[in-house]
Amino acid sequence: MNASSFRDCQAWKDEGLALSTSSNEACKLYDAILTQYVKWRNDESLGGIEGCISALQTADPNFVMGHVISTGLELVSTTSSTRLNERLASAVRRTVELANNQNISPREKLHVRAMELFARGNFSQACEVWEDVLLDHPTDMLALKFAHDSYFYMGAQVPMRDSVARVLPHWKPHTPLFSYLKGQYSFGLLETRFYDQALKVAMEGLALTPDDAWSVHSVAHVYEMRAEVDNGLKFMESREKDWQVSDILASHNYWHWALYFIERGQYEAALEIYDSQVFKRCKASGSMLDIVDSCSMLYRLEMEGVCVKERWRELLQVTQPHTDDHVTLFNDLHFLMVSLGADELGTSQRLLEGLQELAKNPGDNQQHVLAESIGIPMCKAMMEYNNGNYVQTVELLNPLRYRMVDIGGSDAQRDLFNHLLIHASMKSKNKRHQKLARCLLVERDAVRPNSPLTQRLMQKALALHA
């Protein structure tokens, strides 16, 4: 990426995406930020995303879309809540104020509106506004990518796929960032179980751009969902040099690599990746994706009977400051894994009570609306499991099986809660629960045949219930 190749005022105008600023420098920096966001990487030669954001604010402090992208990226990272972070809340207000006092385009006004809705936790309405932008401006990558991420946070699998499908015909191979659409589309396809097509589209993306970490990630998912462990391991290893440059996604791709080892029962190999890549990167970046990956990996290993006690204590240092955030239920559940694992009863209790408090008066924050029916019972189920109350765990979790998708994340990430239900059902003294465990394993085997992990659990269930 070199700075001269980014789009200036005229280039954005020529694409029908005019930006309300007279600064060519601001336009190019906006493009540089967008490009790094799409590529999942901080380009050090540009000063990374942070460096470009501060240069952009200097180039034109009143550039509305500059504020939209910089504040929007912080919001979408879910590392901080406008409820608690006054600096972030005032950045949102400042953007709205600038938009109201300037003569900006209808498209830019919609961007400001969507960002404001997202900041309030109203993800689905924010997505409707981004879709409104895309209706008239199908090549607006910022609207597409913000919507893509937000659908992901809502577990809105079909809209995430269709959002990209709708705009694909309008993109031409020479359109900047064209190849990255393949990975985005592939991800929507695999989350709606079109695995063959997802694989084909991701490979098309990689043929165009071998270091597209999101396409790599999409392929990793397909092999994960089909329990094709050998293919997954071979693929991740053969392409490691390409995808590890994408520092924002590298840790997550290492997490996928480790999942194959857990699937195989090679726990030492998984822990090696956890220590050398996943946790190390999570501690350095403080990125929410890296944090939740660390949480879920330890939780999976612990369910498999691996002792990870000391690692929980270390990870608690990273998650504890986020206890009161409550930006997404998905994040909350992952923080809870850590406080439970580290025997931090006070933190676990505080997280649950904070969520209960917000659920009483959720306003239009959809995560808080869902807390009552899904988030809180899932938290309680994890607490019961931690206390050895397996009957209660099953009774809380089983009715939510087909609604858990609403906490967001991917099928692969949420699979952890399927494991939890299976383990709780196996350990429950209730005979019907034990029967349920066997049924869940049969069902799992039908969806992803030849899974070594399913086989192990089946043997365990038979031994326990013989």
UniProtKB/TrEMBL annotation:
> Looking at the keywords, is Isomerase present?
no
Asked if the Swiss-Prot or TrEMBL record annotates the protein with the keyword Repeat, the reply is yes
UniProt cross-references to SUPFAM superfamilies, sorted A to Z: TPR-like
Instruction: Identify its protein family.
Output: Belongs to the TTC38 family.
Q: Which organism is it from?
A: Austrofundulus limnaeus (Annual killifish)
Identify this protein by name.
Tetratricopeptide repeat protein 38
| Originating gene | ttc38
Q: Which domain of life is it from?
A: Eukaryota
Q: Which PANTHER family does the annotation name? A: TETRATRICOPEPTIDE REPEAT PROTEIN 38
Q: Which residues form a coiled coil?
A: none
What are the protein's UniProt keywords? Repeat, TPR repeat
